[in-house]
Amino acid sequence: MGSIIVVMYFAMGTSQAMRSALVEDLLSLVPAITFLVASRIEPKPATARYPFGFARVNSLAFLISAVALTMVGSFVAWEAISALIAQEHPTVGPVEIFGQRVWLGWLMIAALVYSIVPPVILGHRKLPVARRLRDKVLHTDALMQKADWQTGVTGIVGIAGIGLGYWWADSAAALLIALSILKDGVKSIRTASAELLDGEPREMDGPAVSEEADGVRRRLREHYPGCEVRLRESGRYMVATVSGIAPPARLPSKKVLTGDVPDWRLARVDFEPPQDEEA
Fold this sequence. Notes:
It is built from ten helices and five strands; from the N terminus they run H-H-H-H-E-E-H-H-H-H-E-E-H-E-H. By secondary structure, it is mainly alpha-helical. The radius of gyration is 24 Å and the shape is elongated.
């Protein structure tokens, strides 16, 4: 990804789509960096200042990644709209390479083609791992990789449009991809905010309540009939609170309480006894 940034910088010229793609490539490093940092901090043991451990660092990293994704979409959209309103006519002239005059657009297209290949491969490999780990940070990183290659494809269309005399093609192409990025970014921010506010566990790719959470809640209600069950997400884990019952002497195994959901997802079950029992 670093090599893509270098290639894009030297080939961007005055193209709006190329400048937008360069900024997008720079910000696309944020989710990857936050994932790597969070994965180092998460397994650390609890301390006096952090008595509950660091499992929720994944939630903080997810919010940072979601904001970065939204910033990418916002920047690209602003630049594209500004250029369309101002009716900027980008020019792509020739350059001399080894004594030969070559249209700079060909170099831009070559750089964009190169910028497409690694994100396609990396994004394809990250998605199944993110789903297996229930890691929304890695999932956002994969979404950023998707935005990378989409920006590259759209940039090629924009450069070709300039070559054919359509001055607006460059900015219009950048705006189209910006809307797609913004949609993913806003959706990720909604999910990350719900997670930090102890909301119901959400799906990996949207703000809807997780089907896994519904399954765990149903099995807890079956095991403790008449009790209220609340679930919240703590990083990649779920924490359940069962109200209306004193803590049982012996808890069933997590496998019994989770069913088809991986048992590691349920970090713990807390019990809140009835009010009269507390008195």
